[in-house]
């Protein structure tokens, strides 16, 4: 884990130094888990993003999966996601559609009342501009929720959230940005747990990404609603 932390910090420092283009965005992220049985639940999330310094909405992401729990700490999922982008260039509006199938493993664990999770996700991507291009990507995600002013069971109250996600292109990277390292997202938030089933968070994300026309950095204000029933 110490090695992974050093790698992530290295990417952040490197990205911040070389990034040439930046903008401010706002994201809304709604994340839901619906229990079916003791072993199975359905995961569903919706993400809406603005672009160009919050001047217009440009991305909608819809994602769902069937999740299987080996126990309280380990789970695997198989899912599908659709991402629609709306961009503008000298010719006018450009729409890009992406379909994904993904597999993931998640490990949830605690240190006293602090909650942590490590998630590994493998994505098969079909991205359509003029035609569909196929690529595969890996994602490494780590999150921590630290209770600040909460009850003893951390079922209600104020908490701090920290997370980082590293994206790596594993196959046919020429179809995306031509690089193994795709992007890195770091998010820090202040949240309030309304109950053991509902979390709210508001925070800042630094998003560094390599695109075909060069590196980008984005400063994002994000509101997150997480429910679990």
Structure description:
By secondary structure, the protein is mainly beta. It is 7% helix and 74% strand. The chain contains one helix and eleven strands, in the order αβββββββββββ. The chain has one helix spanning 2-18, and strands at 21-35, 40-51, 56-69, 74-89, 92-111, 114-128, 132-150, 157-171, 181-195, 198-211, 214-228. Strands 1-2-3-4-5-6-7-8-9-10-11 form an eleven-stranded mixed beta barrel. A hairpin with a 4-residue loop joins strand 3 and strand 4. The protein is globular. The two termini are 31 Å apart.
List the helices and strands and how they pair.
Layout: H1 2-18, E1 21-35, E2 40-51, E3 56-69, E4 74-89, E5 92-111, E6 114-128, E7 132-150, E8 157-171, E9 181-195, E10 198-211, E11 214-228
Parallel strand pairs: 1-11
Antiparallel strand pairs: 1-2, 2-3, 3-4, 4-5, 5-6, 6-7, 7-8, 8-9, 9-10, 10-11
Number of helices: 1
* Percent of sequence in beta strands: over 45%
Spans where pLDDT lies below 50 across 5 or more residues: 6-19
Order of helices and strands: HEEEEEEEEEEE
The main sheet orders its strands as: 1-2-3-4-5-6-7-8-9-10-11
Helix-and-strand structural type: mainly beta
Helix proportion range? under 10%
Molecular shape: globular
Evaluate the radius of gyration: 18 Å
- For the terminal residues, how far apart are their CA atoms? 31 Å
Major sheet summary line? 11 strands, mixed, barrel
Overall average pLDDT = 90
Beta strand count? 11
């Amino acid at each position: 884990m110490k090695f992974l932390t050093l790698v992530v910090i290295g990417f952040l420092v490197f990205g911040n130094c070389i990034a040439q283009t930046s903008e401010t965005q706002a994201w809304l992220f709604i994340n839901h888990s619906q229990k079916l049985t003791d072993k199975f639940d359905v995961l569903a999330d919706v993400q809406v993003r603005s672009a160009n310094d919050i001047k217009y909405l440009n991305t909608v992401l819809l994602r769902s999966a069937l999740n299987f729990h080996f126990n309280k700490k380990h789970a695997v999922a198989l899912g599908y996601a659709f991402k629609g982008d709306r961009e503008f260039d000298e010719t006018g509006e450009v729409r890009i559609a992406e379909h994904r199938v993904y597999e993931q493993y998640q490990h949830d664990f605690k240190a006293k009342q602090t909650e942590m999770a490590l998630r590994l996700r493998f994505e098969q991507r079909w991205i359509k501009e003029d035609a569909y291009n196929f690529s595969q990507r890996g994602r490494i995600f780590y999150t921590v929720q630290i209770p600040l002013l909460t009850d003893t069971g951390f079922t209600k109250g104020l908490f701090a959230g920290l997370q980082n996600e590293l994206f790596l292109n594993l196959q046919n990277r020429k179809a995306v940005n031509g690089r193994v390292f795709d992007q890195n997202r770091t998010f820090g938030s202040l949240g309030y747990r309304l109950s053991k089933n509902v979390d709210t968070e508001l925070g800042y994300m630094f998003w560094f990404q390599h695109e075909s026309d060069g590196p980008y950095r984005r400063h994002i204000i994000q509101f997150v609603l997480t429910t679990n029933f």
